[in-house]
Amino acid sequence: MRKEIVLGGNQKLKIYGTLRCTPGKRMKRENRVFFSSEEEAFQKDYRPCGHCLAEKYKIWKNGLI
User: Fold this and answer.
1) Are strands 47-48 and 15-18 parallel, antiparallel or unpaired?
2) Per the confidence metrics, is the pTM higher than 0.90?
3) Sign of the C-alpha dihedral, residues 18, 21, 23, 29?
4) Which residues contact residue 27 at a Cβ distance below 8 angstroms, ignoring those fewer than 6 apart?
């Protein structure tokens, strides 16, 4: 079984999002990390992107307040 990259993240900010996210495409190359699932990103303490994953971000944010 081959794992496919479906999400990208910013290592410094601990944010993950889709590979097509415009703000995500602007991040520095040295800060980029990739994930094969949302569960993997979540397990590594990354939060959803407020731009490309707005609904999931709202749920995440409300869970912390």
Assistant:
1) parallel
2) no
3) positive
4) 10
Q: What's the token pair of residue 45? A: 């303490």
Q: pLDDT digit string (tens) for 24-47?
A: 889 999 999 999 999 999 999 999
17 closest CA partner among 28, 42, 30: 42
DSSP H helical ranges for 1-65: 22-25, 38-43, 54-64
Tally Cβ neighbours within 10 Å of residue 26.
Answer: 7
Cα–Cα distance, 5 to 63 (Å, whole number): 27
